[in-house]
Structures are given as structure tokens and as C-alpha cells.
Amino acid sequence: MIRPNLDIDALRTFVLGFELGSFARAADRVGRSQSAVSAQLRKLEEQVGQPLVTRAGRGLALTDAGERLLSYARRILDLNDEAVDSLRRSELAGRVRLGLPQDFAEAWLPEVLGRFARVNPNVMVEIVVEKVHALVGKTRQGDLDLSLAWGPSIDAPHLTPIAHIPTVWIGRKDWRLDRTGRREPVPLVAFESPCSFRDPAIGALDQAGLPWRIAVSSPSLSGLWAAASAGLGITMRTRIGLPAGLVALDPAATGLPALPAVSLTLVRAESEQDPTVGVLADIVLSVIGERLDAL
């Protein structure tokens, strides 16, 4: 029996379609027409000899065969990408220095380091986890090669905008805004100033005419999560790394004001970067793109 060779491009589009929740979005992402993406899906179905998707209301759902193929496809793509990266970059060596806010260090750093180490085993990675203004300063001075930064006002020459990420009020599920005549101030759990989240949170409350107070000020993200989990107040963050026991609070249900998105930027020490730095930057951007699509 001669087995067909599954098409890598078709598998990539198939996986992307279900990660993004739409093959139309997948078509936009890979730069193909929707008819071309549909043709790729039909080709995969012909190769495996079974339907992979079925109609579910106005959308599509995986068949049993589609669910099995999706699992295999992710593993095939990981091995394909790892092999290509390893062969192209196996000669890289040296050191690269990366700065991260605490959100990313806690949630996504293991995946970044894992991918990088698999294809660049001879490169040493130094990680610095600090507040954004410190990271940007160290990158600008050349003490870091790359750093991620929250916020719009970044004083650095070499910037790559990544995304505008929605921010939310975060607290315990049972948290409610005080609606008594006393109008107790909203208790805030926040980083010490300056902070890319603290000022917008206070500004939103001021604009809504809601009194507030800093209930807990902490230099660490784990301190914010602990204080919010204990019911001492609410905080403003993205959904990145949201721990169990805390939820994104619905402004309509709680009476809290809507919040603005926050910008995320990759800051580079040099415009013409070392190839090793470029490899790590590509992996950081890839992991962020995948995780943001899944939020």
C-alpha cells in the first residue's frame, strides 16, 4: 500500500483555521484566497479518505477524523519547523540577552526558551525580568539585546510594534462595585508607579466619576495576583497568565468603566542585529502571535 504524503502547507492552514476559529481568517493570515484554502482542505480530505469538517450552525466543526488529524498535524508541523530551524541555524553560538515584563516571564517564557534551545543549543540566553521602564533603559544602553515593553511612550530608537492587546479589570468572581450611598472608593491592586496599567486604570475611574484608592501596591505580579485572589481589590491587566481563581470582570455587570487596549512593542538594542538575536526575536514574535490568537 502506497501512503500519500500529507501536504505541509495544507496542514498548516488546517491547524491555523481552527486556532483562529475561521478558515477565512486563516486565508488572510497565510495570504491566500478563501477558495485556495478550501481547495487545500479538500486535498487533505482526499489524502486521508475521510471528511475532516462538518457544518455546525453557521460555522464548521471537526469530525472525529478531523480531531485526530489536528493532533497529528500539530506534531508534524512542530517537527518540520524544528528540523528546518535546526539545519539553518545549527552553527549559531554566543550569547543573547532578553528582557521581559513579568506577565510574559510567568506565562510564555518556557515555550520561548524551549523552542530556542532545541534549534540553538550552543547559544546561552540571559533573561532579565523587570518593570518596563527598566527594561527599555537597559536595552537602550546596550545591556540587553531585546526586550518586550508595554505602553505607547517608549523612548528607544529601534522598535517593532507587535499588537494592541485588550485590557480588563481582574478580580474574584464574586467582586462587586459598592453601590451604597456611601460610594466607597474602588480598591485597586497595582504596581508601583510608573506602570503602563496603573495610570490608565486610574484615568478610567476618574473619567467615570468613581472614587478609588490604592489598596495594595506591589513590585511583583505574583503579589498583585495574591492580593486580588484574597479579595483585597481589583487590578487592571491583560488576560495573559490569568491565574485560576481570578476572572476578567464584566464592566456592564460590575459598573466599572471600559478600559483601553495597551500596546506591546519589541525593543531592540541595534538596528542591524546579530543573527542570534534575530533568531530569538523571531521565536518571541511567533510565540506571542500564536498565544494572542488563542486568548
From TrEMBL:
InterPro entries: LTTR (IPR050176), LysR_HTH_N (IPR000847), LysR_subst-bd (IPR005119), WH-like_DNA-bd_sf (IPR036388), WH_DNA-bd_sf (IPR036390). This is DNA-binding transcriptional regulator, LysR family. It comes from Aureimonas jatrophae. Residues 6-63 form the HTH lysR-type domain. The keyword DNA-binding applies. Signal peptide: none annotated. PROSITE patterns: HTH_LYSR (PS50931). The keyword DNA-binding applies. Belongs to the LysR transcriptional regulatory family. It comes from the Bacteria. PANTHER family: HTH-TYPE TRANSCRIPTIONAL REGULATOR LRHA-RELATED, TRANSCRIPTIONAL REGULATOR. Keywords: DNA-binding, Transcription, Transcription regulation. GO terms for molecular function: DNA binding; DNA-binding transcription factor activity.
